Amino acid sequence: MWRLFFVIMLFPIGSKAQKFSADEAKEDIDVLYHKMQQVHPGLFRYQSSEAYQETYLEIKTSITDSISEADLFLTISPLIYQIKDLHTGFSHPKKWRKKHPFKLPFIMAEVEGKNLIQYNAAADTTFLRGLELLEIDGKSIESVKDLLKTNIGTDNGNEAAKQLYATKTLYAYYPKFFELKDSVDLLVRNLEKDSVMNYRLATVTTKQMGAVLARRYPEKIRKNLSYTMIDSTLSLAKIDVTSFEFKGSPFDLFQTKFKRKFKQHIKQAQKDSVEHLVLDLRSNGGGYIPNISKVMKYVASEPYKLIDTMAFNRSAYFKIFSPAKGITPLIAPLFFNKKDSIYRYRATGKPAKKKPSKLAYKGKLYVFMDAASYSATTFTISLLDDMDRATFIGTIPGGANWGSHAGSWYVAKLPNSKIRVRIPEYRIVHARANKPNESFFIQPDISVEYTLEDFDKNIDSYERVLIEKLRAD
């Protein structure tokens, strides 16, 4: 806990914000701790109950005076990140977010150990791509990233995911833990001139940022479920899947458009006689689980099933299946028909019965993945790995090979601060019949490193590495 209090003293936040008495803060901590125990299906998968209780007591006893909402937010963070589950999260209350709408006006990339400005969303166009970021409002970028990495609860403490999120999504994570006003002071280095300079930039809202980036970098926007011929001479094409969410309309409840688009691209790949097909799953955070099967149907090489086991805490029964949901609480036991002392669960135990389509792509398959490939994406990667169907290119994904805590979420609002805590309701175990005991994270067959040369020349490192491999073969 000493590290937490050192951080709060070093980077005080929100001193003029609303304050809560010690008793109010402790009540919020009690509610958070007990909700986690009641609902979370994997609370002690990566930690012991004793360690979690110790953290809870240390945090609670440390509060002896009134505390601001921002400081309370940081103080309770260990009760979230110590679970080591990226599906478990928390956010400031709606009222707070309305008063603090600003984001940092840039997206950053770490390249060969340097934190470089990759995309500029600021009004000041002299804030150039390639500048090395050194400080934000007087705080070194490394100290900022260290705090963010500490407060991101990735699956089993996935360090690659912590590093990527603290860098690539710095613009969004920073204002969650540091006070960000309508402008920000930055210290940067121009690498070409080896000179240091200061910038004061206006901060932006999420909407403003999206509009500016779309206007300035249209060629860098990845369109979900798009098809591209990367290199016709190598017969190399790519289907970009940036999300497992894709609705044709608000009434497309089962996301049938996802299947239509993916099937359309598979047909196009067949028409183009594509010999090497890439599924680009980089930075795909997941989405609608049934869409996994809509992908697997057209790329699988053998029959498959998705889920081995799905379970939830028995103590969370009426949180998940509330009486307000009609007959759901009565019929849920018919689906979750097994139980032990902790869980009610469903174990399929049956052979794989989902078969690849007759249209399924049978050529060589490659998967681009990074540490932000998560949830339904990791699920898909895991199934492909189990059947040795693809060559994996990049880094380890963000999610665990065995499965995840996901499906749906219970949102607890803490009584005084109104901080919202997002708690997964289910434990979902991937169906891995061939390799049930493989490594915790899927390992890449071909590793990729983003180089300064790639950055300077605007080269896609993943495509470069794959093209080099195919040409060498």
Give the SSE layout.
Elements: H1 2-10, E1 19-20, H2 22-39, H3 49-62, E2 67-68, H4 69-76, H5 78-81, E3 89-91, H6 94-99, E4 106-111, E5 114-120, E6 132-136, E7 139-140, H7 141-150, H8 159-168, H9 170-177, E8 183-190, E9 195-202, H10 206-216, E10 226-231, E11 236-240, H11 256-271, E12 276-280, H12 290-299, E13 307-313, H13 317-320, H14 328-335, E14 338-339, E15 343-347, E16 364-369, H15 376-386, E17 390-394, E18 403-413, E19 420-430, E20 446-447, H16 452-457, H17 461-472
Parallel strand pairs: 11-12, 12-16, 16-17, 17-20
Antiparallel strand pairs: 1-2, 3-19, 4-5, 6-7, 6-8, 8-9, 10-11, 13-15, 13-19, 14-15, 18-19
Helix pairs in contact: 2-3, 7-8, 11-12, 12-15
What characteristics describe this protein?
globular; Tail specific protease domain-containing protein; ClpP/crotonase-like_dom_sf; 6-stranded mixed beta sheet; alpha+beta; Pdz3 Domain; 473 residues; 3 domains; Tail-specific_protease; 2-enoyl-CoA Hydratase, Chain A, domain 1; 20 strands; disordered N terminus
Q: Can you walk through the features of this model?
A:
This protein is α+β, with helices and mostly antiparallel strands. The protein folds into three domains: 2-95; 106-146 and 159-216, Pdz3 Domain (Roll); 220-407 and 426-472, 2-enoyl-CoA Hydratase, Chain A, domain 1 (Alpha-Beta Complex). Helices cover 35% and strands 23% of the residues. It has helices spanning 2-10, 22-39, 49-62, 69-76, 78-81, 94-99, 141-150, 159-168, 170-177, 206-216, 256-271, 290-299, 317-320, 328-335, 376-386, 452-457, 461-472; strands spanning 19-20, 67-68, 89-91, 106-111, 114-120, 132-136, 139-140, 183-190, 195-202, 226-231, 236-240, 276-280, 307-313, 338-339, 343-347, 364-369, 390-394, 403-413, 420-430, 446-447. The strands form five sheets. Strands 3, 13, 14, 15, 18 and 19 form a six-stranded antiparallel sheet that branches. Helix 2 packs antiparallel against helix 3 (49-62), helix 7 (141-150) packs across helix 8 and helix 11 packs parallel to helix 12. It starts with a helix and ends with a helix. This is Tail specific protease domain-containing protein. One of its GO terms (molecular function) is serine-type peptidase activity. It comes from Arcticibacterium luteifluviistationis. Pfam families: Peptidase_S41.
